[in-house]
């Protein structure tokens, strides 16, 4: 297409140039031919020659009618005419034929002779000259007529050239018309193509527009999905962080962050199923939305954790909202024909100068407050204060120390005696763990065992304790029981039974000498599994003690269903046993039940003689308490390495 | 009436007196005669010029190529318009008549225009009759395409001896 157009334009240019040059050439030729008419020149020369001849005759024949000057003038004129015979074109015409040259030569000769002889010419020589001139009249006239013919031939040739030129003109014009037509066609085609491509572009454009709309739509929905929780439709964690950072950046007033956690939601899920749990979460979030006009935004961070941003309220205002919200959430839920109540814990942190507050820090503070709220009893709403951070940091440090302690074995076992109430003989010893912290001193188990449980260190710690206790007991000469406390989590470890077997094997302690103490809380988990494990342990030959009996969820069913050997009655039952008959009755009941069920009963927390005496009266078989012995280090157990039995056990322990 | 007759008479007398004495008489051989509608004369109703009189009107040179000579030629002569002004020519055309009775018509616009000269010299030599003398009407052909046409070539009369102003 473009090439064709280029060829056409080139053809136009060539045709135009060709026409212009041809025309100008032709014009040049015509001008040259026309400018000097040779025929005229020749005929003029002939005429002047004859006028000279006549003038000469008139001067010499007719009594000098014409003067000599007039003759000479005519002669000069003829000379001037002869000069024109030397001009290019005329010269060529003359030289084309020898005959013409001969005539011209004769002419020049006659005129030349006349010129030299004129002044001395007499009549006779004049006549001779006239005769010579007369002879030339004929040939000169022929020359003239030939020149005319030549002129006509030239004109004819020029006419032919013109004709040719005209034909070329015609062809060129026809070609130009043709080229013009092609150009028009090309133009039309181009227009059509343009229209088509315009239409295509329009279609493409509208496609693009709709695609772009669709994309925007998808983007919007993707963005919504990315920033919202599918279950509750609340903004999710991502949007929460963006909103928090935004609020801190732009808010002029205070910003409060509430972290909300449903209490015991896990048990709802576990007992009523996840679908029910989801419904509950949904309804809780609906109730949160009722507060939308008081708060900036609610978010679901995941699970049963929610967050709420409050902008422009003081601490009291934020706390008020928290209380209202907690009350609203605590109101009974009716779901799937069930009535359910669930409370929540709320931790609040405040940024009084939002622009200089870091979002991460604020979140951590709210989290610390939430942690404390969960631990609290009653109103589980906690506003973060600086000391909480310190406590939190302290706890974190303790956690780190505990990890190191497990690695380095910074634990020591103390042993407390269990004695026969009647004979005061030593029945066994309970191993009690202490943590010898390098800077904090001795830390009791109540402060670090739960921490170890939270940190997942309890199996390791339990193993350390078990090994240490068994190793120590194995050195004793007397076959006393060694009682070791278990955490409920240890029972959940899949290879716990095997690990006990291994410890017994490596320490060489007979299984019958080992008593493992559990608490009733182990039964909160999978009761069947716990029963199975306990049976496996008992099958090894060791005994199981139920520690802190009488507190917690104790029920008679435990006595029936759980395979254990020893009841350790909690010390709270012993405290006023000496003064309060009812308390004594309870202890007696337990002792009787235990005895009739063939279980060993150990009364804990005996501190006074009066208590001891009372227990003796009630028929309690075994006791444990400060009255008999405080927990002591292994180094104080040297006497156990001797074969003979000491009579006064209490004395042995007391120094 | 009388007064107007007197004015007419005075005018006639003045006119006669003025052209009778307007131009000096030629002293050498007459080479150019101007007749016709002219105001200034020196011999009855004609004006006659010898070479000195013409040269007295000022000279001008034209260097040009011509159809008649094969080389660049230098012509020298009196400007045509000076001569026309000198004789007080009025009219449409000037007829130039050559020795051989060749006659050509030159429009007055050419004659009073600035370009044409009445050449008397060719390449520094006076032209005699054998060399297209004594007077050759020459245009500056090279100066314009217009002058290189048959029209102007035919107006370029040579061996001119007489102008008739009409």
UniProtKB/TrEMBL annotation, chain A:
Domain of life of the native organism: Bacteria
GGDEF domain sequence ranges: 253-386
One Pfam family named in its UniProt record: GGDEF
Coiled-coil residue spans: none
Record's keyword terms, sorted: Membrane, Transmembrane, Transmembrane helix
Transmembrane segments: 168-188
CDD domains xrefs: EAL, GGDEF
EAL domain location: 395-645
UniProt keyword annotation of Transcription present: no
Protein name as annotated: Diguanylate cyclase/phosphodiesterase
Species this chain originates from: Paracoccus laeviglucosivorans
Automatic annotation (TrEMBL), chain B:
Gene3D superfamilies: Oxidoreductase, molybdopterin-binding domain
Protein name: Oxidoreductase molybdopterin-binding domain-containing protein
Domain of life: Bacteria
Record flagged with keyword Signal: yes
Residue ranges of the TM segments: none
Keywords: Signal
Keyword rRNA processing among UniProt keywords: no
InterPro entries: OxRdtase_Mopterin-bd_dom, OxRdtase_Mopterin-bd_sf
N-terminal signal peptide: 1-20
Residue ranges of every copy of the Oxidoreductase molybdopterin-binding domain listed in the record: 67-140
